[in-house]
Amino acid sequence: MKFIDDIPRIWKRAYLLLCFWYAINYAVGTFLEWKLETPNTYIFWNALYLFEALCILIVAIFFYCNLLFKYNIYIQVAGHTAGVMMYFLTMGTLSYYLEDYVEGFVYFENWKDHLVQLLKWEGLHFHDQYIITIAVYYVIRYFDGQQKQEHEKSELNIKNREMQISLLKSQINPHFLFNTLNSINTLIGSSKEQARRVITQLSDIFRYALDSHGDQMVRLIHELDFIDNYIRIQQVRFGDRLKFVKQVDFSCLSVYIPPMILQPLVENSVKYGIAPKDDGGTIVLTIKRFNNMIFFEVKDDGLGSKAKKVMDGSSSGVGLKNTDQRLKSIFGASSGLRIRSNEWGYSVSFFIPFEEALSETQAEPENQQTLNKAG
C-alpha cells in the first residue's frame, strides 16, 4: 500500500520494536501467572487479545501524538493526560470483557469494580504502555527534528555558497572589461605584441574566475598569479600611476585559500584609492605567517578617508561584504575583514589558520624569507 510505503522507516522500526518489547512482556508475565497463580490456558488467549489491541492502539497513539504536536506544550500535556485516561479505560474495558464479562459479570458495578481493581496494580502497566509509547514518539521527533535542521542547514550552506560564487564571478565587473577592451584597442595601433599579452592575461583572468567553485580551495601561488594578471592589465590603463608591491612569505605559497578572495580587496584599492588620485599611488599586498595563523593585508596610499564613495571593490556593491561573509563562513567569525582608513590611505586585512600542506617550500629552509617584488 502506498500509504504504508510513505511512512518513514524510523517509525516502522519504532513500531515493530515496541510491539516486540510488549510481546516479551506479555509472554513472560502470562507464563509466570499461569505457572504460579492460574494454571489455565485461557489466560494465554486473553494475553494474546490484549497484545493485539495494544499493537493497534500504538498506531492510534502515534497519530494522536502527531495531532497534538502541532499545538503548544500546555495543550499537549492536557491532551496526553486525557489520552492516558482513555487508554486505561479502553484496555481496562477489554480486560474486563475477557476476564469477567464472559463469565457472566455483565453489570455496570462489575465493570467499575474491575477497573478499580486494575488501578491497584495491573492498571499501572496500561499507564506505562501509553507513557512509553509517547516517550518513544517524542524521542524520534526530537532526533528527526535535529536531522532536518542539519539537512536544512546544509542546503542553506549550499545555496549560500552558490550565491556567493555567483557574486564572486560577477565581481570582475563590466567596467573592468570595458576599460580593458579600450586599452587593447589602443595598443593594437601602437604595440600589437603588448595587445596580445593583455588579451592572454584577460583570458587567464576569466578562465580562473569561471573555474572557481564554492567549495574549491586553491593554492595561494595560483591566487597570486591571478592578482598579477589583474594588476598588469590595470597598469596598462594607469601606467606609472599604479604601482604594486608584494611582500609574501615563501612558506605560505602552498597553503589553500578560497579562490578570488584577494581580488575585491585589490580592486577596491585601485578603484577608490589610486584611480581618483592625480598622482596615483602604490598598493602593497602583504602575506606573512605568525605561528599558526597567516596574515593578509592589502593597503594603499591613495585617497583613504578622503574618498568620496563607499569603498567596496565591485560594481554591484558586494565586493568587500561578500569577501567578509566568505571568510567568516569558511574560517570562522574571527577571520572577518579588518578595515582601517585615514587621510594617508586605506587598509584591509584578515587572518586565516595555517594548516600544514604539501609544499615544496617546506623542504627548502633557505627559502624561508620574504619576497619583495615590484609589479
Short description:
This protein is of the alpha+beta class and 375 residues long.
Q: Please, could you describe this protein's structure?
A:
The longest helix is centred in the middle third of the chain and has 49 residues, at 122-170. This protein folds into 2 domains: 2-153, no CATH class; 171-374, Histidine kinase-like ATPase, C-terminal domain (Heat Shock Protein 90), CATH 3.30.565. The chain has helices at 2-5, 9-36, 42-68, 73-99, 108-120, 122-170, 174-190, 192-211, 220-238, 263-274, 319-331; strands spanning 218-219, 242-249, 256-257, 281-290, 293-300, 338-342, 345-353, 370-374. Helix 4 (73-99) packs across helix 5 (108-120) and helix 8 crosses helix 9 (220-238). The protein is of the alpha+beta class and 375 residues long. Strand 4 and strand 5 (293-300) form a beta hairpin. The strands form 2 sheets. It has a 6-stranded mixed beta sheet with strand order 6-7-5-4-2-8, covered by helices on one side. Residues 163-242 form the Signal transduction histidine kinase internal region domain. InterPro entries: Bact_2-comp_sensor_kinase (IPR050640), HATPase_C_sf (IPR036890), Sig_transdc_His_kin_internal (IPR010559).
SSE topology string: HHHHHHHHEHEEHEEHEEE
Top-tier CATH class of the largest domain = Alpha Beta
Give the distance, in angstroms, between the N- and C-terminal Cα atoms.
71 Å
Provide the residue-averaged pLDDT.
81
Quaternary structure type: single chain
Rg: 37 Å
Poorly predicted segments: 310-317, 356-375
- Major sheet characteristics: 6 strands, mixed
Across the major sheet, the strand order is 6-7-5-4-2-8
Tell me the name of the CATH homologous superfamily of the largest domain: Histidine kinase-like ATPase, C-terminal domain
How many separate helices?
A: 11
**Strand-pairing-aware structural class:** alpha+beta
Q: How many separate structural domains?
A: 2
% residues in beta strands: 5-15%
Globally, the shape reads: rod-shaped
User: Percent helix among the residues?
Assistant: 55-70%
- Architecture per CATH nomenclature, i.e. the level-2 architecture of the largest domain: 2-Layer Sandwich
